[in-house]
Design goal:
Distance between the termini: 41 Å
Strand content: under 5%
Strand order of the largest sheet: 1-2
Order of helices and strands: EEHHHHH
Number of helices: 5
Structural class: mainly alpha
Number of strands: 2
């Protein structure tokens, strides 16, 4: 990240990125014992959660209006960064399930 959020500079976005990552894993049934999921509700507003779930579960239903409705004051590059994070986390969840299936098959 560029350590910016909307009009604020010098911001550490680690907690926000971690909340997004863990929320996506939670959507797919993957939960981590060492993460406080209360952070997800504090850091992610409802419109962002709806957008995240739509992008990772039903990408064909994602609309430009949905994209424009979350984080209205943020730069386009910040929204693109979040979208890349969504796709990476989705891929990670799929790989975890694939590896689990392979492990079960091999044992």
């Amino acid at each position: 990240t560029y350590n910016t959020m909307a009009m604020h500079c010098g911001v550490d976005t680690y907690m926000l990125r971690k909340a997004v990552w863990n929320y996506i894993h939670c959507v797919f049934g993957i939960r981590f014992d060492d993460y406080d999921y209360g952070d997800v509700n504090q850091l992610l507003e409802i419109s962002l959660k709806v957008y995240i779930k739509t992008v990772v579960c039903y990408p064909e239903k994602t609309t430009r209006r949905m994209y424009n409705s979350f984080w209205r004051h943020f730069k386009h590059s910040e929204k693109v960064h979040v979208n890349l994070l969504l796709l990476e986390s989705r891929m990670h969840a799929a790989l975890l399930y694939a590896l689990r299936a392979i492990t079960r098959y091999m044992t």
